[in-house]
Amino acid sequence: MEINVEERSKKKEKGKKYMSHRFKNAVLAVLICFIISNVEAQSKKPEKDSPEKVREFFVASLVKIGDPVLTALSNNQLKALMPVEKSPGAWDERTHVTFLEAFGRTLSGMAPWLELGPDDTSEGKLRAKYIALAQKSIHNATDPNAADFMNFVNDKQPLVDAAFFAQALLRAPKQLWEPLDAVTKENVITALKSSRKIEPYNSNWLLFAGMVEAAIIKFDKEEDANRLNFGLTKHKEWYLGDGIYGDGPDFHWDYYNSFVIHPMQLDILNLLKDKNSDYKKDYETVLNRSRRYAAIQERLISPDGTYPPIGRSLAYRFGAFQLLSQIALWKELPKDIAPAQVRSALYFMINNQINAKETFDKNGWLQIGLYGHQPNIGEGYISTGSLYLCTEAFLVLGLPATDSFWTTAYQPWTQKKIWSGQEIPIDHASK
Question: Which residue, 92, 238, 318, 431, shows the most beta carbons closer than 10 Å to its own?
């Protein structure tokens, strides 16, 4: 039967309306999904989390990072279990240095939290577990007969991580040094002193030598005065102004003022000023400069918790903000920076990075990257152990849960304020 032209036209028009209706429904469905997902995202914004939840996140994140290292090392299995991922341009296999990196850096970042000691709270019981693991790890890392005995002497890199280990001991003497048996204490001092054979580069590395000697002063005797003081003296010369030091005589746009230069000067001088009043003026000078650099760091964190990917060692992730965390821990923040805004900024930032896809491998070990897994971002010296410097962002956990840092309600940080139209204090340089 033939269909006349008019009927064909009607059917064609009907088909068009049907397809148009389906298209509109599809667009509407996509729009609804977008709105729902956006609402869900808004409801999950971290500023809505209570201060108590934020601390729980900090503790859980630190434990997630540090547990594989300390569990394996406490069982003398770190060398057997830890994968050694290298950057594409790795200098060598890195297996002779990566394990001390993982150990020293993990312990340095965890130390202030561990130093709070055990108590009857759930967090206190968790600390008790990791204090015990840390003490066993220290024993195994420094016992020449242990499977996980660390290299403190071969190549130059071990000086760096002997310093982070020494820094951990200075940050938590009651939990990481005093309970050790006599043999382990002797092994620790022997290991630290053995790193003296490594000559530091004429850069921030001078402070690594100084940090090792500071621990020897604290826990033993016969420090090498030249290695102790030379780095402090050179950094007086290398100060450039406005809270910034050169890395050596030259300026570098990177985060080494926070990775090493400010925190290690502070920890060394904090010890020395109590033993010799001649260091008190130097301590105050460095502390004032550190306050200024902490203020700069707080302003670097964007409204969405990101920061500029500038300079080398970006694979250390949020460890780039060690100094801000340390100044908050020491309650030395500039007066126009509220502790709660620092907590909120660090929370946003760490939340972003730690939850990025493939930050960890399937067994919970960190992988190279700034945001997720990005092996190409690692320099030739970067391997799995290097990445554990990120724990330094958690120094603020050394403040007890009852401290106002952890109990005050959410406050927006500087960039969060100004990019939402709020007023902020005028920023001023310092000498």
Answer: 318
Inter-residue contact 36 to 338 (CB < 8 Å): no
d(CA 364, CA 64): 8
Spatial separation of the C-alpha atoms in residues 308 and 292, rounded to whole Å? 18
Q: Exposed/middle/buried for 292, CB within 10 Å: 0-12, 13-18, 19+?
A: buried
CA distance 168 to 211: 10
Average pLDDT of adjacent 10-residue blocks, the chain of 431 residues:
48 48 42 35 64 98 98 98 96 97 98 98 98 98 98 98 98 98 98 98 98 98 95 98 96 97 98 94 98 98 97 98 98 97 98 97 98 98 98 98 97 97 95 86
- Contacts of residue 259, Cβ cutoff 8 Å, sequence gap at least 6: 204, 313, 316, 319, 320, 322, 389, 392
CB 298 within 8 A of CB 413: yes
Q: Where are the alpha helices (DSSP H) in 116-224?
A: 122-142, 157-171, 173-176, 182-194, 205-219
Q: Radius of gyration (Cα) for the chain, nearest Å?
A: 26
Q: Kindly state the helix (H) or strand (E) to which residue 244 belongs, with its residue range.
A: strand 244-245
